[in-house]
Each structure stands twice: as C-alpha cells, then as structure tokens.
Write a structure and sequence with these properties.
CATH superfamily of the largest domain: Response regulator
Helix content: 40-55%
Largest sheet: 6 strands, parallel
Strand order of the largest sheet: 2-1-3-4-5-11
CATH topology of the largest domain: Rossmann fold
Shape: elongated
Length: 341
C-alpha cells in the first residue's frame, strides 16, 4: 500500500493524504478521519524520512559508495569513515555496488533523493562507453564528492589516493634485487585506475632495467579470491621445478593465491611472494621472512577523505571549487632471506 492507493480509496488527492500525514491543520476534520481510518485498516506506515523532507528537514547524512564491502581493505576504510562520521554527528548511508555501473547510477540517484550532505566515492572499473551522467547530476545538485582510492577519467573531483605507481615501482625494484628467474605480475582489470597505476609502476621498473619479455608475464583476474586461486593454480602447474617470483597487485586475489600455494608448497624449489599492500590476515598467512610488500595506509587515506569532505560541507564548497588531490606514500617491507617458501 502506498500514498497513491490511499488517496484513491479515500477519493482525495495525493497532496491531501500528504497533508494528513504531516498533520496539516488546514485539512477538514472529516477528511482527516476518513484518510486516517483507511491508513489504519491497511496498516499504512508513512516513510518518516520522506515526511521530514516534505517539511524541509534534512539529516546529516553522507553517502559512501563502495565496490566490494567484502574486500578487507575497503572494510577497514568503511570502519574508519563510520567512526569519524559518528564523532561529527553524521550518519553513513553505505552503498555496495559490486563494481557495477548500473548500481552506481541507482545509488547516486538514491543519495540525491535523500539530500545527502556529501559523497565519498570508491568507483568500480571505468567503462569508456558510459557517460557517467549520474556524477554530473550530483555536481548539478551541489553535493560535494570526494574520490577515495580510485578515480574516474574525466572527473576532476577532490580525492585521496595511494601513490600507486610509485609504490609499485619500488616494490618491483625490491623484487629484482632477488634476481628472480621468472616473474609473474597478477593484476585485476586495468580499467580500475589504481590497478592501472600499479601496472605502470611495475612496467616502468621492468623497462628501466631492461628485463626481457621472457623473464616476466602478466596475468589478469577480477580482484576476487577465486580468480587469485585459479590464476595461482594455472601458474603453479606449469612451473613445478622452477624458481618463481609472484607479484600480486591486489590483496583479495593474494589470499586466493596463497590458498593454492599452501596446498602445493612442497612441490616447488623456491617461490618468492610480493604483494601490493598487506592486511593483518595476510600477515598471519605469510612466512615473515619471505615476502616483499608494504603496509598500506588505508586508515589514513580513509580519514583524510572524510576530513576533506567535511571541510567542503562545512564551508559550502561546490564540486568545482578548491579541488585537491592528496597522494599518500608508504615504506616498502622486504622480508626475503633467500629460502624456500
């Protein structure tokens, strides 16, 4: 039962039903009683938020758009932003898109309808055949946006990001100090800005040191646990007696790869692992002395993104003013001691 159906049963306009819901004294008592009786019979409960909007009352709500809440690192960011929001008396409206463009469109419309004060946006993959009108619509509604971790081509919004290319460049330099026989670089789709930057950092080092095409290979997955497992299975079955270095540019895929590696660890002469960023879970799974990684400042960039958005909200900056792009770096951790995995 909705407000239109109530109005039809009561033989009054939708506007009249809305006035009854909002307790407008101008509604005749007989009409009010008639509408209220029908609402009671059909157990109609008006949307409290819609009622508040109709009165011009809005809440301190911030939209948080995330491509995968199951990703460990995104989960850390969500927790930080939620805690910061609570301190500032804001409520988070969390939208999980699974990296799908149509869901991003749907959620941005919902956020506009809810009159959110601002949006922190972690995009899915960039699709060149899409026009991203939903982002333009947010701008037209003067809702400030801050990109977090990833960005979308053609939209110069504020954002807080890892310095992905530089970090990946330095990880690859550490890898090549171990004089590997063969390197595999495992990545998600390069349509994701952060994945592309990590690839560029890897390739920059490879080109600078003139590593031949035979000495490295690139494999692509979908950022999920299962694809890390499948790619690992494919690589390992073809290199049972070889020395390998595996550089995995995504945390969740790294978990999948480690699962298949643990099953087959006794079959290999030596495997060196490099991971772009390490979570606490990965740290427990790895041999402390046999991997290259970095501790990603995910909590830091999440906190900075929230602070940047709150600054824009409190100072009434639109999406086109005071643009900022903050890059965060980190230290490379090398725990290789030249022993078998």
């Amino acid at each position: 039962m909705n407000i239109k159906e109530i109005s039809k049963l009561a033989n009054v306009s939708v506007a009249t039903v809305s006035r009854v819901v909002n307790n407008d004294p101008k509604v005749r008592q007989a009409t009010k009683e008639k509408v209220e009786q029908i609402m009671k019979e059909f157990n109609y409960k008006p949307n409290s938020y819609a009622t508040r909007l109709s009165k011009g009352v809005t809440d301190n709500i911030i939209g948080l758009i995330v491509p995968d809440v199951g990703n460990i690192l995104f989960a850390e960011m969500i927790e930080v932003i939620s805690n910061q929001a609570e301190k500032e008396n804001f409520t988070i409206l969390l939208c999980n898109t699974n990296g799908e463009y149509e869901k991003e469109k749907k959620f941005t419309k919902i956020l506009i309808d809810y009159k959110v004060k601002g949006v922190i946006y972690i995009p899915g993959k960039y699709e060149s055949d899409k026009n991203y009108t939903h982002l333009k619509e947010i701008s037209l509604n003067s809702v400030p946006i801050v990109f977090l971790d990833r960005e979308i081509k053609g939209f110069d919004f504020d954002g807080v990001f890892l310095d992905n290319e530089n970090i990946s460049y330095n990880i690859t330099k550490e890898i090549l100090k171990t004089t590997p026989k063969k390197i595999y670089f495992i990545s998600g789709s390069l349509d994701i800005s952060s994945a592309n930057e990590r690839y560029l950092g890897f390739k920059k080092t490879i080109d600078e040191l003139e590593i031949s095409n035979e000495e490295y290979e690139i494999k692509y997955g979908d950022f999920k646990f299962d694809s890390g497992y499948r790619l690992g299975e494919d690589i390992l079955k073809n290199h049972k007696n070889d020395e390998l270095t595996i550089y995995i540019a995504n945390n969740t895929m790294a978990l999948g790869f480690l699962k298949i590696l643990k099953k087959n660890s006794k079959k290999f002469k030596r495997i060196t692992i490099a991971i772009f960023g390490i979570s606490d879970v990965l740290d427990m799974l790895l041999d402390e002395e046999n991997y290259i990684t970095c501790k990603l400042p995910n909590k830091e960039i999440a906190k900075k993104s929230f602070e940047l958005l709150i600054d824009k909200i409190k100072n009434s900056y639109t999406c086109d003013e005071k643009r900022k792009k903050i890059l965060c770096n980190t230290t490379i951790i090398n725990r290789i001691n030249q022993k078998s995995f």
